[in-house]
Amino acid sequence: MTDITIDTSALENMKSLLGEQFADTLDFCCAEFERLGSEVMATIGKDKEAAIRHSHSLKSNAAQFGASSLADVSRTIELSLVDDDLAKAMDACANLMLQVEGSQTKFKQWLGAQ
């Protein structure tokens, strides 16, 4: 089973910063996780630069909103590709979409509890 880690203090900070726009921004963020994750999966092993760019963007977005485990997986993919370790990047990709889906679920649960 894939562990999903969310830093709720990062979510609280974003909620405080964004105010009324937070829920809509969080929805957009979840859609971006899915889009970027799909882009990583579509480009890995085919277009190294695109896969690095998409994994970097996913890492940054995830970290900003507190999706810590998603950011970690994305970081592993990005750095492995930079180091030309495709096998390690592919191993990390095995959990990427599970992390995306799990992070989306945890965000929705957190938002519903607010």
Task: Report on the architecture of this protein.
The chain is mainly α. It contains six helices and no strands. About 35% of the residues are buried.
Offer a quick outline of the entry:
This protein is about 80% helix and about 0% strand. The protein has six helices and no strands.
Question: So how many helices?
Answer: 6
The low-pLDDT segments are none
Mean pLDDT: 95
Please summarize the sheet with the most strands.
Answer: none
Order of helices and strands: HHHHHH
Name the shape in a single word.
elongated
Tell me the β content: under 5%
Derived structural class: mainly alpha
Helix content: over 70%
Give me the Rg, rounded. 14 Å
Number of strands: 0
Taking the alpha carbons of the first and last residues, their distance comes to 27 Å
Write the layout of secondary structure elements.
Blueprint: H1 8-18, H2 22-43, H3 48-65, H4 68-82, H5 86-93, H6 96-112
